[in-house]
Design goal:
globular, 20% strand, 8 helices, alpha/beta
Length: 183
């Protein structure tokens, strides 16, 4: 099962130092991917944070990705980028890259999943109720998304230790979360 930690220091009012502690803790736990998703940072601040996260994850199984900033991902030596729904299409991005990068894509419908098959993986949701994320799609929608995809689909939105097994049973290759990994 793949585990995907999405960072967000804002709810806790964390400094970047505290966030780096949580990144290191999740690297030590063997999380597969960490998406640096600090939307309020300048490009320079995001680069600095990402470069430090890449250094923390160096030599581990954890791969660092940057939220929707391919330039920062490349400059900081991250393993990839995570594209928001409605961002540049993964196949278009691949066509202009001079180096291979992991490309994750957020999807909220079956149509978006089918359209994102050039990605390395898809994060689908929200599966369950999650603050500010709209109506939950549910396990049946997750099952349809996973069945329609040729790339791994990870469940997102309201993911807890208690409902992870249901997501995997529905066909998800793993889970993605903020709160679960920041607790």
């Amino acid at each position: 099962m793949l585990r995907y930690y999405i960072t967000d220091r804002r709810p806790g009012g964390w400094s970047t130092t505290t966030l780096l502690y949580h990144i290191a803790r999740n690297v030590d736990r063997g999380v597969d991917y960490i998406q640096v998703r600090e939307k309020d940072l300048t490009a320079r601040e995001l680069y600095d944070l990402t470069a430090r996260a890449v250094k923390i994850a160096s030599g581990s199984r954890t791969r660092i990705l940057v939220n929707d900033r391919t330039d920062v991902a490349i400059a900081a030596g991250a393993a990839g980028v995570h594209l928001r729904a409605g961002s540049i299409r993964p196949e278009r991005l691949r066509s202009v890259l001079s180096q291979p990068l992991l490309i994750g894509v957020s999807c909220h419908s079956l149509e978006e999943v089918i359209d994102a098959q050039a990605a390395s993986f898809i994060v689908f949701g929200p599966v369950f109720e999650s603050p500010g994320k709209g109506a939950p799609k549910g396990l049946q929608a997750l099952q349809r998304a996973a069945a329609a995809s040729t790339v791994p689909v990870l469940a997102l939105g309201g993911i807890t230790a208690e409902n992870t097994e249901a997501c995997i049973f529905a066909g998800a290759a793993g889970i993605a979360a903020i709160r679960l990994f920041q607790q």
